[in-house]
Design a protein that fits this description.
- By secondary structure, the protein is an alpha+beta fold.
- The chain has one domain: Jelly Rolls, CATH 2.60.120.
- Helix content is 19%, strand content 30%.
- The strands form five sheets. Strands 1-19-16-21-14-13 form a six-stranded antiparallel beta sheet. A six-stranded antiparallel beta sheet has the order 2-3-10-5-8-12.
- Bound molecules: 1-hydroxynaphthalene-2-carboxylic acid (1HN).
Length: 349
């Protein structure tokens, strides 16, 4: 684990060139950059200002192409350190999707798992496996791997949400399958709210056994998450690194809602300043309520509702909330935990 690279002699370079023609390469020239002492990532800390920057471009895109023609009208949040790679961290995709009044984003399914975190608008729907859910800001909605899904907006306002997908993970494994449906909109098979009643009331239908690894609940409404955080904040002290933080779970297993993406929501009390923290899961944050700042290494991001920022793997960061604030976040933590790779470190104040 020699950390310094030395330019090879001409004799060695000639050897490397020759073996290269036979698809061979010397490990000793590459070892130091392959097996680093600590996580090294090309991903950079970055922030997207929703109201001032992203929203105007998103609305411009709304005039350029329909949701149907685009299939999904999404502006990709591409990490500035991962140019051209369609990723916000090395393992995750993020984008902002716009659906205008009267539009439909046609039904399809794919191996990639997706989460939606609702940013703006009221009452457009996502349908998953024949059940629609009306979306409100702050709702966490999932479309698990290989489930049919389509979106539609029967309201009179634009609807915007953040899409988080495991696209780079599926790409790593070369395991992508996708299929369009034979109709734009799925036939509605169950009334709205059915899944939440069956699986989301801290009860499960007797004799029901899960057939997939993702949660049978596909909308986790903000009102419920927010109430839970408010109770935590009333009833106990905040964690020094996280404030009051909850993770979204699959009620059938207690694991993350989807196997490849973990999602979280945290409340930072008014005036709270967290102690430094880092973990190996590069994390995408969305400010939901309140204003504050997050210091990532030597970069400071000031945020307000609907802003999005990313903290790459193993970057020290700390949050400060002016008034009471709520942050949503997602990462590849469940994958790293399953593979025994995940680590965290808590710093001192
Ligand atoms: C996708 O299918 C959706 O279904 C959103 O809403 C974003 C980004 C890349 C690839 C597929 C959707 C996507 C996506």
């Amino acid at each position: 684990m020699n950390d310094t690279a030395i330019a090879p002699s001409t004799e060695r370079q000639a050897f490397y060139d020759k073996i290269g023609e036979h698809s061979l390469a010397p490990l000793w020239e590459r070892l130091h950059s392959m097996v680093t002492r600590q996580p090294v990532t090309p991903a950079l800390p970055a922030k997207w200002d929703y109201d001032a920057v992203v929203r105007p471009f998103l609305m411009q895109a709304g005039g350029l192409i329909t949701a149907k023609e685009a299939e999904r009208r999404v502006l990709i949040l591409e990490n500035p350190g991962l140019h051209g790679q369609t990723s916000i961290t090395h393992s995750l995709f993020a984008g902002l999707q716009l659906i205008m009044p009267g539009e439909v984003a046609p039904a399809h399914r794919h191996s990639q798992s997706a989460l939606r975190f609702i940013i703006e608008g009221h009452g457009a729907y996502t349908a998953v496996e024949g059940e629609r859910t009306m979306m409100e800001p702050g709702d966490f909605v999932i479309t698990p791997s290989w489930t049919w899904h389509d979106h539609g907006n029967d309201t009179d306002q634009p609807m915007v949400w953040l899409d988080g997908l495991d696209i780079p993970i599926v790409r790593l494994f070369d395991a992508s399958f996708a299929e369009p449906a034979n109709a734009d909109s799925q036939t509605v098979m169950r009334p709205e709210g059915d899944s939440l009643a069956r699986y989301g009331a801290n009860m499960l239908p007797v004799d029901w056994h899960p057939t997939i690894k993702s949660s049978p609940v596909f909308n986790y409404p903000y009102s419920r998450s927010r109430d839970a955080l408010a109770a935590l904040a009333r009833n106990g002290d905040p964690d020094s690194c996280h404030g009051h933080k909850l993770r979204y779970v699959n009620p059938a297993s207690g694991e993350s809602a989807m196997p490849t993406i973990g999602a979280f929501m945290q409340l930072l009390p008014a005036g709270f300043g967290s102690t430094p923290y880092r973990s190996t899961d590069g994390t995408v944050f969305v400010a939901v309520e309140g204003e504050g700042e997050t210091v990532v290494g030597d970069t400071t991001f000031h945020w307000k509702p609907r802003d999005i920022f990313v903290v790459p793997s193993w970057h020290w960061h700390r949050h400060r909330a002016n008034g009471e604030a709520v942050l949503f976040s997602f990462s590849d933590r469940p994958v790293q935990e399953k593979l025994a790779l995940w680590r965290e470190e808590r710093g001192r104040a």
